[in-house]
Amino acid sequence: MRFKTQLTNIQTFTKLTASLTSLGKVCWLRLEDSIVRFTIIPDQGTQVWAQLPVDAIFEPNTYTLESNSGVINLEVPIGALHRALRSANGANSAQIRLTKKGSVPLLALTILSSSWTTGSNAIGISNDEEFEGLFPDEGDRRGTGPRERETVISQEVPVKVLHESAVEGLHEPTCRDPDVHIILPSLLQLKSISERFTKLATIDTKTPSTTTTTTTNPTQPPPSSAVPTTTAPGGSTASPKLELSANMHGSLKLGIASDSLRISSVWTNLVNPALDPAQLSQTEMQELPSERMRRLGEEGDGEEGWARVRIDGRDWGRVLSVGRLSPKVVACFINETALVLYVYLPGSWNGEDSCLTYYINSYST
Amino acid sequence: MTHLSFLLTPVSLVRLHEALTCLAKFNESVALEAEYDLLRLSVLNSTKTAYSAFVLEADSFFENYTFSPSSDISSASSSNRRPDRFCCQIYLKALLSVFKGRTSEKDKDTAVERCEVEIHEDAQQTECRLVIRMICGLGVIKSYKLTYEPMNVQHAIFDRSRTTNQWTIDPKFLREIADHFSPSAEQLDIHPEGDKAIFTSFTTKIAEGKEILKQPVHTSVAIDKKDFEDFLAEDNLHIAISIKDFKAAITHAETANALLTARYTRPCRPLQLAYEFEGVKTEFTLMTRGEASGDDNDAPNSSRSTARESLARQSQPTAQVNPNRPGGQAPENRRTDMPPPLAPAAAAPRSRPIRPLTGTPSASRETNDRNAENERPAVASMEFDSLFVPADDDRQWDVPNDEEEGEDMLGWDATADQETFNASLGAQLQDNESHTLRRDEPVEQQQDDMGIPPTQRMSQLHGLGLFD
């Protein structure tokens, strides 16, 4: 079993691992000839299945993979891998390989980085004068000027090699066709508003207060606009659950409700991406739940055109940490059931191939 | 009556605060020793594996420094055997809280203009205090009175003339290296190989099965020997120290902007990190691990020599070597001025002889336990973040930690576990002879040879009728 490659797009790899780290401690890494998969299945919360072409993070010419089955499955402590990769920030080159120390398999990361010193006083240790006195006078400074200094860093991340039989029972969740699919607005904005809402609801449940209404005023960038609305108190929540809903007419609503407050923000003029017409016939297209929802929404501002899910505020915040990769995110709403996010990474490689899929279950009311 | 007073400028106040912050990483109280020409702040950690000392020179560090020791030795605190100096111990958290924030208010009208520190110790008075007065702008004067305890200071003795390996480097480079280490790594191995010096972080814990994934990442960083100001160390000689102590030293060295020198002989012998700046001499004497080579002073030899050493010390207990003045008065007959290997108590459980003469063993054990407990929060509160790759914008994507935000910084604890404080001092206070930190071992060795319980010196046993 052999795996060895140079890294490319170290930044992307580092950010990817950072996003994954927020969701779980252990990651199933599956290395194949042309694709790399990262999967996190936590005991509770959101699953993520990420698939990248090899050349998204590895240098294809140096990519060596040898195994009986043509596949290597590893269990990786993703946080440790992320930390190790941070050492490669700004490195000249970095190599990763599967190796062994004693009985412990390791992912060994070898990083070569160089920097310029500012006028260091380098002295060659071959200098014979050094050995005349046991300890040379420290005041005697030799060598001049800036020079290039090279540092070799090696990080050894302990991993577990998984047998194919250990992972064959793991399957990506399957869902019915979505009711609404929509491209999410800026994740940073979405994240900060979500966090604010979650916090308000948390404070609210912690300290029973007489406040009956609370308004928030999130900032809104063009072209989409968020309209904060405040309604009468109602509903009840034990732990903060965000209500996320969208329709097929470019609107997304994020809201939270507790005993004493109900807040929501609405984005409009978002894009509902069209599905690939080549894959479906005209009639099939018409029968898609999303098209039905689109027609429902046309009849007015009624509730019927909206698909909604209820998600855990904290978990949602962890999911949104993927925003650091500045991706394009398509959210697929399956009414009252689940929210599936397709996260497409920017970059030169084929967007179709590199996709992170997040599966978020909806809580019932 | 002992009188000590000195005046600090705002600049030296900052320096003092930095030094105290560094010392606080080792233990909870600092030993303060005043001599005619210097003030020494030192801390020995609870496991006695790390000793750090800051020597502030009277002439160059202080604006004004006066020290007059108690003239009447008999009436002075019984622990002060050396009449020409004054020793006491102060709770570091209390001392730090006095200086906290003083350094950042430079631009305010009420910024500190100078700081006066005084100690008046009088055997006739029941209440002795360290008095710190901050003279601020607009006529504001802030006074603090801190309690202190008399104590015997324990110094780690390190003989620089015997070191065979030495290197000097800008601490900035060491900091860059430390940035790559996992926060959970415990030990740091240093060894030269060819034209590289290799720093490897590792942990001694061995995990099995599922735990494998929780093991800290092993990180090794190789830098060119050219990055050192000078480098003279035996090739492939591995020496290992605690990462926590290493980081504490380099963090301070970096703020002091001083070149740091490491000196050592071989594994299991102490390593010293030292540097000097602006009237301050700093040294960290640390326990090392590793595989001791058998060629020179091997283990049996050295234990015999420590026995001899302890005898030598007994015959002339006052002839203590001042570790801060290398090349000083190292007596001829002391073959090993460097303390023998410092093994942590847990790592090297020795058969402890029963000590019937005093209550020290149980008391000190209790204290150790308590110290160990107390040490844990200290570790947690160490600002690991500051040592690692600086936060960038990427952080904004991190999951917010609501729990953390709610908690305030720990300030002055008014409930003052005076009890714990006293207890932690208890052990040291019972020693009534100044000696090195390796007191335990030499005396035990000596017990093997001589058959004397280890807690008291022969000189004190007169009158019992046993050794007269």
Describe the structure.
- The complex is a heterodimer of chains A (365) and B (468).
- Chain A folds into 2 domains: 2-115 and 151-167, Proliferating Cell Nuclear Antigen; 180-361, Roll (DNA Polymerase III, Chain A, domain 2).
- The longest helix of chain A is centred in the middle third of the chain and has 20 residues, at 187-206.
- In chain A, 20% of the residues lie in helices and 33% in strands.
- Residues 120-143 and 209-237 of chain A have low confidence and may be disordered.
- Chain A has a 9-stranded antiparallel beta sheet with strand order 10-6-2-3-4-19-18-17-11. A 5-stranded antiparallel beta sheet of chain A has the order 5-1-7-8-9, with helices on one face.
- Chain A has helices at residues 10-21, 54-57, 78-86, 164-167, 187-206, 282-287, 289-298, 313-320, and strands at residues 2-6, 26-31, 35-40, 47-53, 64-66, 72-77, 93-101, 104-116, 148-158, 160-162, 180-183, 229-230, 241-247, 252-257, 262-267, 306-312, 328-334, 338-344, 355-361.
- With 365 residues, chain A is an alpha+beta fold.
- Chain B is globular, with a radius of gyration of 23 Å.
- Chain B is of the alpha+beta class and 468 residues long.
- Chain B contains 10 helices and 19 strands.
- Chain B has a 10-stranded antiparallel beta sheet with strand order 10-6-2-3-4-19-18-17-11-15, sandwiched between helices. Chain B has a 5-stranded antiparallel beta sheet with strand order 5-1-7-8-9. Chain B has a 4-stranded antiparallel beta sheet with strand order 14-13-12-16.
- In chain B, a hairpin with a 6-residue loop joins strand 17 and strand 18 (271-277).
- Chain B folds into 3 domains: 2-150, Proliferating Cell Nuclear Antigen (Box); 160-292, Proliferating Cell Nuclear Antigen, CATH 3.70.10.10; 301-324 and 334-340 and 351-376 and 419-468, no CATH class.
- Mean pLDDT of chain B is 69; it is low at 74-80, 294-391 and 404-453.
- The longest helix of chain B is centred in the C-terminal third of the chain and has 22 residues, at 360-381.
- Classes of the chains: A alpha+beta (365), B alpha+beta (468).
- The interface between A and B is large, with 57 and 42 residues.
- Chain A: Residues 204-242 are annotated as: Disordered.
- Chain A: This is Checkpoint protein.
- Chain A: InterPro entries: HUS1, HUS1/Mec3.
